[in-house]
Structure formats: structure tokens, C-alpha cells
Write a structure and sequence with these properties.
This protein has two domains: about 120 residues, Nucleotidyltransferase, domain 5, CATH 3.30.420.40; about 170 residues, ATPase, nucleotide binding domain (Nucleotidyltransferase, domain 5, 2-Layer Sandwich), CATH 3.30.420.40. About 40% of the residues lie in helices and about 20% in strands. The protein has ten helices and 13 strands. The strands form three sheets. A five-stranded mixed sheet has the order 3-2-1-4-8, sandwiched between helices. Helix 3 packs across helix 10 and helix 6 crosses helix 7. The chain starts with a strand and ends with a helix. The mean pLDDT is about 95.
Length: about 325
């Protein structure tokens, strides 16, 4: 009788896979580079390769697996398993559920990665026993997720909770989505890297000068520069926290959640710095009578949030 679950975190640079046992604990992991630029077939082959390697290394067969599930960036119909659009993968109106099930001969479920990250924290992490939770995940971009009345809320046609594209300053910097002044343009790794690069163009010295490559940096390098008192890095962090506070204030006023949960690579690396700064600033951007009942906290599950969310997606089928 099948007793294992395989869960995947599919990104533009890597596919992270894990096997969960019947007690819902991770018992094995494997990671492989995605090479999304090489097209749909390559990404699909990578997904299959990760699953097959997990099975081989843990010495089980696909018949021992209840289902495979995954989180990925983009607008994804959880019910049909169709990816309508993905910003970092070569998918548009892509029937990934059908494609993967035909190759693996087992059930496959998929949802938006940050939606599932928040679902994972709600089911297994810091947001357990809460009925109303908003999540902001800060990484290369910024994604969002919502639990309302104890259920994952994905909006009409699964297009909801795009918190990273709240416009917070109509004269702000350009965002990759085509708008100006989005939260993502200020507070994501891309947004911070753009700010730092602008300061370098103006002749300012920074420890980050060697860390930015192809418009990005590793989270650890920002933390190192910040801890060393680098002025430009500190400004980038303060600016990011200001707009995360403004966005959080909007979420407080609109949803009155019990908790706002922050996750993603930047939070995992610097959450102890960023979250107190956000909390310190947020009262200026929301009704304090509403904010008084909102808890601000970091995700518990770290890089595993999306894996646990993918597991939760399977369990609710």
C-alpha cells in the first residue's frame, strides 16, 4: 500500500524534491538545476529526473508513492493543473498535470509556490491554528499568499494575492511586470540590487560592489555588508523595510489578519533585522485599532515552506 509523498519546489534555477513518510516527515531530499532557458521539455525532464532520483536513492518504487505535488511560480489552476503563465519558467497555458501524470503513472498536483508556502506554514508551521493569515515571501521577487476563514484563498481564476505588485508609489522605480512603484521594485532582491547599482553609478563605495551579478546578489552577502555598517547596504535594507511596512499596513486594513507571516530567502537570512524594522514602521500606515490584533512573524519552515505546502495540497485532495 502506498505510504510516501513526493513534494517539489520548482523554480527558475532549481528543482528541490523531498520524500515525506506516513508521519509527514521529510526522510530524503534531492536538488537539481532547472536550466529553464533550455525550454519546456528540459524543465519537464528535470522534474522527472528529480522524482526518479529520489525513488532510486531512497530505494522505493513509484507504486509506493501516494502522489507527487509541487509549487511553482506563476498563475496556476490548482484544479486542472494548468499553468496559465509563469514568469521564470517557459510555461504558458501548459498542461503540466497531464504531462507529468502520463510520464510518472501517478497523481500529480501543482499550485503557486508562495500560495503553497503560506499554506505550508498554516498547516505545519508558525501559522497553525490561525483562521486568517497573510504571507509575504521576499526573494528574487515578492509573492503573497492568503488564508481566509481557514482556507487558502486564490482569487478569481487563481490570480489572487499578488502582493508584490501592489503599487505603493506611482512615480517609483520600474518593475519587471511593466508597472512602476510596485512593492517588488523596492523590497525584493532585484529591487534592492537595482538601488545598490544606482548608488554605485553615482560613485558611492559599497561592499556589495563585487556581490551583484546579473542584477542579483546572494542574501548572505547583503547581511555581511549590513552587519559591517555599509551605508549603501543599510539604505537598501531600510528602503525595503519601509515599503514592506506600507504593504503590510494595507494588508492589515483590508484583511485584518491574525498574522502576517514573512518568508523567502531574504527573511531567512535577515529576518531578525527586517521584521523588527517593519513592525516599528507599520503603525504609520494602518489603523492602530486594527493592527493591535495582528502578529508579525517569520516563517518557521524556511526553505521547506513550499514543500510542506505541496504536501498540504495533496492531503486536501
Amino acid at each position: 500500500m502506498p505510504k510516501y509523498y513526493i513534494c517539489l519546489d520548482i523554480g527558475g534555477t532549481k528543482v528541490l524534491g523531498a520524500i515525506f513518510d506516513s508521519e509527514l516527515k521529510i526522510v530524503h531530499r534531492y536538488k537539481k538545476k532547472t536550466k529553464a532557458s533550455e525550454g519546456i521539455k528540459n524543465v519537464e525532464d528535470t522534474i522527472i529526473s528529480v522524482v526518479e532520483t529520489l525513488l532510486k536513492e531512497f530505494n522505493i518504487d513509484i507504486s509506493d508513492v501516494i502522489a507527487v505535488s509541487a509549487g511553482a511560480p506563476g498563475i496556476i489552476n490548482n484544479d486542472t493543473g494548468v499553468v496559465l503563465f509563469s514568469p521564470n519558467l517557459p510555461w504558458k497555458n501548459y498542461q503540466i498535470k497531464k504531462a507529468i501524470e502520463s510520464r510518472l503513472s501517478t497523481k500529480f498536483y501543482i499550485g503557486n509556490d508562495v500560495n503553497l508556502g503560506v499554506l505550508g506554514e498554516w498547516r505545519f508551521g508558525v501559522a497553525q491554528k490561525r483562521k486568517h493569515v497573510a504571507g509575504i515571501f521576499v526573494g528574487t521577487g515578492i509573492g503573497g499568499g492568503l488564508i481566509l476563514n481557514g482556507k487558502l484563498y486564490t482569487g478569481h481564476h487563481y490570480k489572487g494575492a499578488e502582493f508584490g505588485h501592489m503599487v505603493l508609489n506611482i512615480e517609483g522605480p520600474s518593475c519587471n511586470c511593466g508597472q512602476r512603484g510596485c512593492l517588488e521594485a523596492f523590497s525584493s532582491k532585484v529591487g534592492m540590487a537595482n538601488y545598490i547599482a544606482l548608488q554605485m553609478k553615482r560613485g558611492r563605495k559599497t561592499l556589495m560592489s563585487e556581490s551583484i551579478s546579473n542584477g542579483l546578489f546572494k542574501s548572505k552577502s547583503l547581511k555581511t555588508a549590513f552587519d559591517a555598517g555599509d551605508e549603501v547596504a543599510m539604505e537598501a535594507v531600510e528602503r525595503a523595510c519601509l515599503y514592506l511596512a506600507v504593504a503590510s499596513g494595507n494588508l492589515v486594513n483590508i484583511f485584518s489578519p491574525e498574522m502576517i507571516c514573512f518568508g523567502g530567502g531574504i527573511i531567512e537570512s535577515m529576518g531578525d533585522v527586517l521584521i523588527p524594522k517593519i513592525v516599528q514602521k507599520v503603525d504609520a500606515y494602518c489603523l492602530t485599532s486594527v493592527r493591535d490584533t495582528v502578529e508579525f512573524t517569520a516563517a518557521d519552515l524556511g526553505d521547506d515552506s513550499i514543500l510542506y505546502g505541496a504536501l498540504a495540497l495533496t492531503l486536501k485532495q
